[in-house]
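May I ask for a sample protein chain and its fold as tokens?
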Amino acid sequence: MSGNMHSVQVVAGYLDSAFLIEPSRPSLDWVQAGVRFGWIVDPGRVATNNLKGHFEAIAEISGSSITDGAGDFMGGIGAKIRYNFANPNANVVPYVQLGAGLNFNDVYKDETQGLIGQALEFSLETSVGLRFPVSRNWSVDIEGMFHHISNAGMDDRNIGVNAGGVFVGATYLYGRR
């Protein structure tokens, strides 16, 4: 593998805070869709490392519709680092990723909830996923995610949101191999 490789991934999924909250804590659940742009950072590593794989730097933009809880929408931008555990030509490519970003929302407008206190909140997430290549350039993907949203104590309302969910998507991989 040589040269520059890139990816475009489109994902959609559902995040639910109910399985992680205390009974008295408000719920916030949402449907999210996003587009991720990836740059394979170390393509040479695939051929030289015993644990075959490579790092990928990812930029994401997403939008969400709230299905349960205060507010109607959230949107975000973020950066992720992903480790793909196999050569992109493998039958299944497992990956893990960590991400951080900014979350824009209208949840804060409902002053009866204590989860989110500002229009701009911070976002942290971790995911595990599988890519199933269907051709040289395309894969179908499934991903499990843990997502945390809070304002790091910059507002009195900062209980934060912890949600887990599942995403499905498709990836287009391009560039020189």
Remarks:
- Residues 5-175 form a domain with the Porin fold (CATH 2.40.160.20).
- Strands lie at 5-16, 29-40, 54-68, 73-84, 93-105, 120-133, 138-150, 161-175.
- The radius of gyration is 18 Å.
- The mean pLDDT is 89.
